[in-house]
Amino acid sequence: MNGRFCFVLYVSLLWLAPQHSVAQCDPFFQQPLSARPANYDIRVTLDDRSKTLTATQTIRFTNTSPEPIQELRMYLYFNAFRNTESSFLKGTSQIFGQGFTDREPNEWGWITVDRIEREGGADLSPNKRYVQPDDGNIADQSVLEVPLDKPLLPGETGVFQLNWHAQVPKTIARAGYSQDFYLLCHWFPQLGVFEQNLAGQWGWNCHQFFRTTEFYADFGVYDVHITTDSKFVLGASGCMLSEKNNGDGTTTRHYHVEDVIDFAWSVYPRFTVQEDRWRDVQIRLLIAPEHAALGPRYRHALKFALEYLDRHVGKYPYPSITVVDPPFHGLRSGLMEYPTLITVGTFYGMPQGIRTMESLVVHEFVHQYFMGMVASNEKEEAWLDEGFVTYFEDRIIDAAFGEKHALVDLFGYQFDNRELTRLEYTTMANPREGTVARPGWYFTDTNFKALIYSKTATTLRTVQALIGEEKMDDLLRTYFARWKFKHPKGRDFMAVLQEELLRGPDTVLARQVYGLVEKSIYQALVLDYAVVRITNEILPATQGVFAEDVPTAMRGSQLLSKVEVQRKGDWVFPVDVLVTFEDGSTQTLHWSGEEGAKVFRFEGGMKVISAQLDPQRKIGLDVDLNNNSLTLQPETAPLWKYAAKSLFWIQNIMQTISFLV
User: How confident is the model at residue 247 (pLDDT cuts 50, 70, 90)?
Assistant: First the structure.
């Protein structure tokens, strides 16, 4: 099929910005947006020959809890790529479909804290140790514990000086290098979050690094000086404040960003730099030269997303957003999100009618809101980020390019983002495999995306269909405004959901919608309704012998039509049934869904020719739409039944193309 693609050739590129341009932080960063308990000043040097980092780092950490803190816990993510016995790599021989075991020693990655001192106190290094709070795997060194010489009291700020060095891994998953392309993400010693757990106990939330977990850290200010070979074009979180040529073939660039939970950067000597603006936000696209003609497509989708989220969710509060499009050999670093920096991915000559690259840049940007600003715990409750992001990705792409053909519009074949999202959940081998609301390390590699991303997004889309887009926007704006920069948990979203739903007059619907979300996220039920039978039977005229005291109305032959529906799943939710009669008239009935099977009877009227459950397609969580309708006139059967089956195969093709999502 690729031979039939009409590849788009651009005769010229949009204007290119010089790589030494400096983003201005004004008028941003004038007022704190978060509590800023964890602040980092880092000076790091990348040695391109040895693929190593050497750094000094200052952490200023304020104890915002009512409890004294006895130790620090910090992530050392690079150690996940140290050997095959780390909790991240153990139990698999492939990541993203590629093996990683046949490596030279210097192609593995690791990070070592050489020294950590407390300002005005002792050297804390001798007592540091690796801990494994989640699986007890002593080979895992992704969490470091450092006992303090004296407790850090409530309200007190501790200043800690670190010297550390790291071996950058050859890329296995996102972090690392591929030839002369680098993505430095989760690259420095970073504190976990000191907070209350669900039982009300204070402690460090600092989990090990697993394949099915992402990241969780606290808000702060980052001031980072990065020294590299001068050949490199560099992109990083925040604003570049200065750039200095050191006279020895290296350049030091100074970056600054505030009220974020992380900092990432990327270098590559052949990046083409394309710049743009949306209002007062600088857009900086670092794109592989072979993809440069596709840059306008990225920028258009990104600006549309900025506008859409500003209108439907809230303001983007940062001065910049940097987009990194890796070269093909570095694609395993693509499709990931970091504060004010995202990585994407595409292929040379991507046809205009396939918009996976637009969908991906929108998806990663929406993370700035739910991973970045709301900053829920991606390790314990990933659905609060990935599910919400996928929901808005679907809305934005469909709004930008049109429902029913937003994602693919090629050779007459059309489908949109939300159709693909729904299919990722409904085509699971076992939708009862487990609940959505579980820590990431309880998921398998195969069911994580279907449940966390797609089931959650389909749930939110179902809520929108039931209560309307305007009320859905009010609900999500309230959640975002109340919880941005505060690390909400699932119960906090459920409280906002309940509050917003009960503001309306229809409390019956409100309770039903709240129950639908609760069941979808916290239970492993399956919703599946089916129309199983339609019959039209001519009953005979009245006949027989009747007692004199039994009044009997004489009648002629009469039509009795029946529609039988069944609840095949264990999830009960009310549903409408649209019945169409021979003369074209229709009747909409309401079924509570409580019975395992129900028969609707129609006497003395026209023949029933078709019946459809959920005719307005509000309940996207129904796992099999193919059985939602039945007709006695096959030639008029709705084509969507066959399209849905085709989408399953298209889905697999698109997942292969966008395998890093």
Answer: very high
In 3-149, which residue ranges form alpha helices assigned H by DSSP? none
Q: Which of 266, 255, 521, 223 is nearest to 376 (CA)?
A: 521
Angle between helices 417-426 and 456-467 (to 10 degrees): 120
Do 302 and 362 contact (CB within 8 A), yes or no? Answer: yes
Domains and CATH numbers, the chain: 35-218 (2.60.40), 393-522 (no CATH), 529-543+553-618+624-657 (2.60.40)
Is pLDDT at 636 greater than 80 in this prediction?
A: no
Q: How far is CA 122 from CA 42, 128, 591, in A?
A: 21, 13, 71
- Summarize the chain as % helix, strand, coil (round to 5): 30, 30, 40
- Interhelix angle 490-501/507-522, nearest 10 degrees: 160
Residues facing residue 112 across a β-bridge? 165
Residue entry with tokens 């849905």: 644
- Residue identified by tokens 């950490």 is 61
Contact between residue 78 and residue 187 where contact means Cβ atoms under 8 Å apart: yes
At residue 546, φ and ψ (nearest 5 deg) are -120, 145
Predicted confidence at residue 550, as pLDDT, reads 72
SS3 562: strand
**Beta carbons within 8 Å of 622's beta carbon, 6+ residues apart:** 426, 527, 528, 529, 613, 614, 628
pLDDT over threshold 90, residue 426:
yes
Mean of pLDDT values over 554-561? 81
Q: Enter the tokens of residue 479.
A: 């959640």
What pLDDT band is residue 503 in, cutting at 50, 70 and 90?
Answer: confident
- Between 417 and 591, whose confidence is greater? 591
Q: How confident is the model at residue 161 (pLDDT cuts 50, 70, 90)?
A: very high
Instruction: Please list, residue by residue across 263-283, b when 16 or more beta carbons sit within 10 angstroms of its beta carbon and e when fewer do.
Output: bbbbbbeebbbbbbebeebbb
Name the residue among 217, 208, 216, 205 with its Cα closest to residue 140: 208
Residues 6 or more apart from 482 whose CB is under 8 A from it? 496
**By the 8 A CB rule, do 524 and 434 touch?**
yes
Task: Say which residue the tokens 């710049």 belong to.
Answer: 275
Written as six digits, the tokens of 83 are 């050997």
* Cα–Cα dist 232/269, whole Å: 4
Report the predicted TM-score, pTM, of the whole model to 2 decimal places. 0.91
Measured CA to CA, the distance from residue 20 to residue 10 in angstroms comes to 26
4 has pLDDT over 80: no
* DSSP conformation letters of 213-226: -------EEEEEEE
The per-residue DSSP string of 234-301 comes to EEESSEEEEEEE-SSSEEEEEEEEEEES---EEEETT-EEEEEEETTEEEEEEE-GGGGGGHHHHHHH
- Rounded to the nearest angstrom, the gap between the alpha carbon of residue 235 and the centroid of all alpha carbons in its chain is 23
Identify the weakest region by mean pLDDT among 411-425, 447-461, 522-536, 590-604: 411-425
- DSSP for 134-151 reads TT--TT--SEEEEEEEEE
Which residue in the block uniquely carries the two structure tokens 């999100």? Answer: 337
What are the C-alpha distances in Å from 623 to residues 4, 296, 561, 613, 620?
34, 38, 28, 13, 8
